[in-house]
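Thread: quick sanity check before group meeting

JM: Hey all, I'm pulling together slides for Thursday and realized we never actually wrote out the predicted structure for the chain we discussed last week. Dropping the sequence here so it's in one place. If anyone has concerns about the input, flag it before I start.
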Amino acid sequence: MGELLFILYFPLIAGAVVIGLFVATNWPTHKPNIEGAAKSEPPGKIVALICVGVITSIGAWSWYEWEQLRRDPYEFYYRLTVDISDKMGRPVGIDVVVGCNGRRGYIIGGGLGNRGRSIDPVQYAWAIPDGHALSMETFPGSDMYSACHGGTTDNGRIARDWLPFVIWYDDASSLSHGLAYVTQDAYVSPRAQIVFHGARINRATASEYRAFKMRGPDNLIPPYLLDQKLTERMAITSDATPEMVADPTKAWRRSGSLVCRGVVRVPVPPVVRDELSKWRPTGSAKYWHLEDSLPAAIFSEIPTKDVGDGIFMRPDTPKWSEERPKVYPMSNDGDLNRLTKATFADGSYHKEVRIAAEDLGFMDCGRKAPKQLEAAVTGRQIKPFDYVTETCFINDLLIGEHKKCQTYRSSAFAFEDNDYAIHERQFRR
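JM (edit): ok, ran it. Output follows.
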């Protein structure tokens, strides 16, 4: 990308310099009427010379920046080693060398916001035996800054019990749908396909980074899918081919960002349970949704624990509390793997949550179907920015059917009896 920009800009800069010099040397000299007075330079010639100087400086700076990016686009390097095995005990982990840009504000051709412009690779997917695949983010959550400034698991600046965000894909040839292992609970679940043994970060060099780029395993994620702005445009503008209509998962390379969805189940403080019970609809089931807004006195006491607050740490770390949030997966009808002719048949998307012991610790990850593909498969045209109704279920129980599955003031997707608040959370990958 840097070479392309230089090829485009260099003729323009060179042409501007030539024109500026021509104007400066051929501009008529102003002769004053006062005899014996020195000839003065007209304002136009001075302006032309200033423009030549500015343009030349910009050209020289651009050349210098391009050379710096070409020779060494990153300032820091680290090696991320993740030790994972499958159920048969075979090692399926990865050793990735990552380039970080700590001082410059951007890297030409980067994606995924500031992270993608300053880290390469920002996300990595690799094939494992039996046709499956794994992917992970290559930075340690909130410790990304430390990793890009000399932090390692050995020197303690990166938590030794850090848990990477790993996604399992059944089919390595189609990364349309995956299952994210969000907490350590997922690895001890009966559903677990992999075993996590640890992750570490150590310093690396530019030569190690270049060697990895040349000889490391291929990243199964195309670079353009790491750019959120580009994937958002593709989700609106991508065409629907007959092959994609027959099997929507084949559109994953031309779809929106991968979105991992789930809910976090947190306890309601005992001091507000009695008050909350007064707002519970009469005859409601175990899981229920509040249509009205909660009073501020109740709302302020209900925990809104964020998934990022220690959720990616192993449970033996002190950062976890005894009542750490429990994560469960949520699926969405708008994703490629769930797109069928029946999707949106009742005028709404279906969100389905599974809360069971074997689902603890997981999030469901899917790619949003492009609008044209959605229309071709379902036969219903949904405009890109339509406000779509969502019908929400927990364990097949209908809990809400309205424009939003949560009200603003309750800040909860649902409640479990009067004891737990269930918050919706999602991550774009």
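AS: nice. The radius of gyration is 28 Å. Confidence is low (pLDDT under 50) at residues 1-8, 102-117, 307-323.
JM: adding both to the slides.
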